[in-house]
Amino acid sequence: FFFSSCLLLVPWMFHSKRFQFFQSKLITAEDGNSEEPLPLFKELSVTCSASGHGYLIFGDDQGFVTLVQRDFTAKAFQAHKSTIQAVQHLKGRPILITLGADDGSLPHTIKLWDMEKEERSGDPICLKTIVLNPKATNIMPVTCMSARESLSEMAIGYCDGSVLLIYNDVTGNAKQKLIRDPDEISVTVLGWKEGGRNSALFAVTTNSVSVFPVSTFQEERIDTHGCALECGLTNDECDLLVGRPEAIYFYSPEGRGPCLAFDGEKNFDCRWCFSVIRFN
User: How far apart are CA 142 and CA 166, in angstroms?
Assistant: First the structure.
């Protein structure tokens, strides 16, 4: 893979570094054949990815989660019966969250996995299964998912623009409600800004940026420009980052802040230690 340019955001500092003509290295087969990619990556049909607990984490279209260590050894387990649409690993807890399909005629399910406890088969223990919007008659594709570190709430975004909130303790007697109604404009980014009573949920569509204070979960639109899928992320240090062709914008719950002007289409990748923004 070749990228014409790459911007590296270091999470503990509000700084960036631009790399020109960044070139990735092919991960080759164990037999030393420099022309043959590692079979693991040839066989994966990746639908989503995350990182945490020392792993790169990939979900695929067969319902499997593949955990890749730093030495590129891997193990896999079946989390769902069909396509996994989203994965998230909590930063401070050994909990993996997967969202996928277990029956084509039923709503999607969310599963919480304990990555430090295993079944006799070697698979992680499933702590909880949540059926999303079980009374829905029309199953909409999920576009994004984000859970709070405390697991007090999590949010799911759909291609029709709706946002489903799971609240009242995700691990306990969780409840569900829509906090954003469908408007046929896809939700592309969800993320949490933690700040005690001032905590909030960010929700981005292709043409808007909104914030939902946790005290009310009422939508407050803070920008009339959004971003495409994989063109935004949130973290504790930099609030919300949104990439558009002309620049990368930073948001707080109060509104849009500074920006970094870089021409070209962008997408975001946050793995292991850094946030990498790739653009052409």
Answer: 14
Q: What is the mean pLDDT of the chain?
A: 83
Question: CA of 13: how far to CAs of 165, 240, 249, 274, in Å?
Answer: 31, 15, 16, 11
8 A C-beta contact, residue 162 and residue 181: yes
CA separation for the pair 176, 161 (Å, rounded): 17
Q: List the structure tokens of 210.
A: 């909104």
Do β-strands 64-68 and 74-78 pair in parallel, antiparallel, or remain unpaired?
A: antiparallel
Q: Please state, in angstroms and as integers, the Cα–Cα distance from residue 241 to each residue in 188, 218, 276, following that order.
A: 12, 21, 12
- Burial (0-12, 13-18, 19+ Cβ within 10 Å), 159: middle
- pLDDT tens per residue, range 28-80: 666 555 666 666 777 788 999 998 888 999 999 999 999 998 888 889 999 99
236: pLDDT strictly greater than 70: no
pTM for the predicted model, two decimal places: 0.84
